[in-house]
# Entry
Amino acid sequence: MKYSILVLTLLLTMKGYCQEMEKVPFAVADRPPIFLEIEEDKKTLQRAFSSKLSTFVYKNFNTAIARDLGMTGRVRLSARFVITKDGSIDSVSVKTPHVELEDEMHRVLSLLPSVVGGRHNGKAVEIIYALPLVFQVH
# Structure
């Protein structure tokens, strides 16, 4: 019983905290950013956004850079950025083993088409998004 009360208290506190936030994590937003104005439920919109974003990045990322750097095997990168209220990309940070791969991720993210910004509790909010990228170099 104490555990249930603790969990309920934490959930209510988190909900109250998120109501006041100007930047909201992707998974928490009531309506995530979208590429096309499609009326669907939250989970469907999240999957559609993530899928389209990943496809775009994999299609446009020049993986030959890693090969040119002498890397082999599995290469992992992680990008974190903010999708602003107007749908543009801002505050990009990339974790990667080489600065050249970081530059390439910045280049690819700068090519993204505009998106419709996310909403939470009926307000336009900035969305924090994390994007892992893993590819094989032969």
User: Anything to note?
Assistant: The domain at 23-137 is CATH 3.30.1150 (Fusion Protein Consisting Of Minor Coat Protein, Glycine Rich Linker, Tola, And A His Tag; Chain: A; Domain 2).
